[in-house]
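Section 4.2 – Deliverable D4.2 (structural model, holo form)

The reporting period included a commitment to supply a predicted holo structure for the target in complex with pyridoxal-5'-phosphate. Inputs used:
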Amino acid sequence: MSKLAVKGGLPVRSESFFLWPHFDDRELRNLEDVIRSRTWFAGMRGSDPGTKTEEFEKRFAEYHGTRFGVACANGTVAIEIALRAAGIGTGDEVIVPALTFIATLSAVLQVNALPIVVDTDYETHCIDPERIEEAVTERTRAIIPVHFGGFVCDMDRIGEISKKHNLVVIEDAAHAHGAVCEGRTAGSIVDIATFSFQESKTMTAGEGGIITTNDSDLAEQCIMYRSCGRKQDDSWYVHHVLPLNYRLSELQSAVLLAQLERLEEQLRTKNRNAAFLAGRLGRIDGVTPVPGDGKTEVNGYYLYLLRYDKTRFSGLSRDQFVEALNAEGIPSHIGYPWPLTKNPMFEGIPPGPKGCPYTCPFYGGSAQIANTHLPVAERICEETVVIPHEVLLSAEEDLEDIPRAIKKIQKNVLELVG
Ligand SMILES: Cc1ncc(COP(=O)(O)O)c(C=O)c1O
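Output (structure tokens):
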């Protein structure tokens, strides 16, 4: 009879880990306040005085050590707004990492600039600063590092490169709410930063996003691009820049205010549990937590990242391993299946109807991104196993089931191979 759950055996675990999204009476009370107030809309600027959205922006910015927060509809448009605010557009190149959600790249296309995809640092899964330096051309205007999984990128090196070449840096901190590196909080380190509050993220209102910055001019631009091109003190029908509606609602801000109250404690729990789990997994040959560069003091832990070595599992493929792990009751997935450049949108025809920005007359060249050489990202995509962040909010005795399930798969692997 088979032992492994994927073959019909009994799973290691049948109960859930910590459930996500998490809520308690705070979310419910805040939502009830908003509903009863009959102010469900955050006002013409998108966070008018006295609204929950204004309060959330202030608190989120303060937590992350920045002067301004501009809440918006989601993390994708947060990047687009940041790019527009920084004046990035047609004919410009923006350097983005190979390993990230498509939004980091699609926001660049949305402003008609050209994303230049560069390779990855193996230890952190973040963008490799040396590859950034090689990719800079006279058209480069910005870099968007992503704090992958919750590790903070090498912002000192990225800062040096940006100064040398006069580039704007936009931190994509969608994976790194509250992460701290060498005393600096993600979202406050460079010119401007963006976050997502989509449901899988470490704080959420189902959807949502925010931009943080210390620069009052950038903040003013962001506010205009977030809400119909309106300026702070102007009236409803006066539009100063491209009039987009990327506002967040009061209902979402009500939920986010409650979620933010828990962030610090949840980060503490996740960082403690990650260290505990690393200790346990360290005793298993073939599954290793991604180490980072040792500089991130508080990891945002959106993703708990493991390297899987199939040679220690009799050649069992990573995808089969993940299937077997899920069958044992351990939530896990493979993460990004490939570097961004492998997406079908880059095969043959370029994204825009007229070829822009790839063959745009303003760009003056013809870029081909499908063939970009990204060996480190390729390798990472083949060997990564991801455990979602909420699992790290479970009790230590529940986490013990993770090494238990992995050891069980390793011991009985011949049920699956050969
Ligand atoms: C790195 C990164 N950037 C941006 C986004 C976009 O956020 P949203 O889904 O809120 O648009 C995501 C979402 O998964 C992300 O992972």
